Amino acid sequence: MQLHVLDISIVVGYFVAVVAIGLWVSRKGSKDLDGYFLGGKKLPWFMLGVSDASGMFDISGTMYLVYALFIYGLKSIWLPWVWPTFNQIFLMMFMSAWLRRSNVLTGAQWMQTRFGNDRGATLAHLSVVVFALVNVVGLLAYAFKGIGKFAVVLLPWRFTNQASGVFADENIYAIILLGLTSLYAIKGGMVSVVITEVAQFTILTLTALTLGIIALVKVSPEMIAHSIPAGWMNPFFGWRLGLNWDGILKTANASITSDGNDLFTIIFCLMTFKGVLASLAGPAPNYDMQRILATRNPREASLMNGMVTVVLMFPRYMMIAGITVLALAFCMPQLQSQAAPDFEKILPIALGHVPSGVVGFLLAGLAAAFMSNFAATLNAAPAYVVNDIYKRFMNPNSGGRHEVALSRIFSIVFLVIGIVCGLLTTSITSVMMWLVGALYSAFVAANVLKWYWWRFNGYGYFWGMVCGIAGAILFLLLEKATGRSFNALYTFPFLLVISLAGCLAGTFMSTAEDDEVLKKFYKSVNPWGWWGPIREKVMLEDPSFVPNRSAARDLTNVAVGIVWQLCLVTLAVYIVLKQWSWACAIFALLVATSTYIKYNWYDRLEKAS
């Protein structure tokens, strides 16, 4: 793609401005670990919500979602449940308030509030650190591969003219762009990341709306009709996916087969079952958890996660739908002429049909998507080494400046490791599916039990995590050794069983946690679940204590909230497609669910203390 000099100037100017802003504000977050990683817990919830949404608006995920909408049509609205995207609804309704009441710095430190300080608690603590660091490296490799594939199609410079290999142009672009973003993320920590992400999200939202409007203006429903198979517009499905691209784009059928999604009902059930359990487990130890812990109180933690859904879903899917519609209307001949097209590159290819001058603005917005996600991920990593290993086991009395300096060093270490793993990776989808399909499956059993079952202890947590992580890594090694790939979701039942077996064996082969630890946790966090013996002891000591009996209301709110979230997604897509009957029906459902949530969630939020 040939960029106009104006487009190049806009993109270069954007990078210079963002890095300068990030470095300028970096002085505010560099005094101690609380300031470096959580902004001193003084940032307003709406800024943290926009920052969290900006971090989720990543370029790798956007490229995958464009691919999914192009290939699977409206049935693709279910595929993000593999993350799952509806975990934001669980967080919004009750989980983020529970987590914020713990008042800790990281997910690993949270282990002490639940399991105390004995050997089992220490092992649980270390298992979370291992999971968090493996997860961060995977996310950095995922970001590396996405930005490289994006940049090599759109940016005009060539360094080696290699299409593959370690020194391929896409890898060199990725290294350069990761390096630029790291400048302010490493120096300033959370404050730099949040402030730059708020600015970036403004650009992202304008970009998304612009792309949607361009597609609305340039493409008619008739232009799309002959480029899609029967059933593409319908979000519902039967036992099988029910899409056949023969006669239009035969290679799309091969892509569906490669993804392992033809038996879509099985995939949907696995995604839903895994997604509900993963959501009940609470947030994974990444930037999402970091934003919750950075809020000022539990009420603001809930509002922050509600903000994420409100500001993220509609504009992001305006962008995804706009790019997909442009690709269907104008890029089909190019894709049909290729023996094995890389559908993950549809996003940058489609931008070739956006007017000159506007392209630079759009590229800046998409660069913002990458920078937001990458900076948030990189900022979350070193806390687990410095706070949860160095400070706890090696030097408890280390000073704030020293800890921040170590955090910067470990940020660089993880940056290098992420780049190396990215160089060894060939596909965005393969990395994403291993993370959310296999690795997160290892996280589920132990992290559900820790919230809802009083008898679960540190040894059970440790052995559940070890068994699950080992299984996920074994799956990856087997896939590499055999050279065959399949949908990582199919590993979920297996990983869940071995992880649950580790949890139960570890728990029942050791004693329960000390009553004082459990009573303190239950009284401060006040979760619902199987806490009967502990609840009785707490109420015996403090008759004024009011236990949480809101499980039915919380879960009903979740069910309505998931429908509400889907409305925001599908409304944007059907507007861009000019399917007005669908859009009107979805809008009416959106109003109804919003009204329900207002009265049954917002009006019932606990007051700030």
Name a few traits of the molecule:
mainly alpha, 26 helices, Sodium/glucose cotransporter, 609 residues
What does this structure look like?
There is one protein chain. This protein is mainly alpha-helical. It has one domain: Sodium/glucose cotransporter (Up-down Bundle). Helices cover 72% and strands 0% of the residues. It starts with a helix and ends in a 9-residue tail after the last helix.
> How many E-type strands?
0
Report on the biggest sheet: none
Roughly how many Å is the radius of gyration? Answer: 24 Å
Structural class: mainly alpha
Distance between the termini: 55 Å
Helix content: over 70%
CATH topology: Sodium/glucose cotransporter
Poorly predicted parts: none
Helix count from the secondary structure assignment: 26
Strand % is under 5%
Highest CATH level, the class: Mainly Alpha
CATH architecture assignment name: Up-down Bundle
Summarize the structure in short.
With 609 residues, the protein is mostly helical. The protein has one domain: Sodium/glucose cotransporter (Up-down Bundle), CATH 1.20.1730.
Give the secondary structure arrangement, pairings included.
Elements lengths: L4 H21 L7 H6 L6 H12 L2 H14 L14 H14 L6 H9 L3 H36 L14 H20 L1 H29 L2 H5 L24 H10 L4 H17 L6 H8 L3 H33 L1 H5 L9 H5 L7 H23 L1 H13 L5 H24 L4 H25 L5 H25 L9 H17 L6 H11 L6 H10 L9 H26 L3 H21 L9
Helix pairs in contact: 1-8, 1-9, 1-17, 3-9, 3-13, 3-14, 3-17, 4-7, 4-14, 5-12, 5-13, 5-14, 5-25, 6-7, 7-8, 7-17, 7-18, 7-19, 7-20, 7-21, 8-9, 8-17, 8-19, 9-14, 9-17, 12-20, 13-14, 14-25, 18-19, 20-21, 20-22, 21-22, 23-24, 25-26
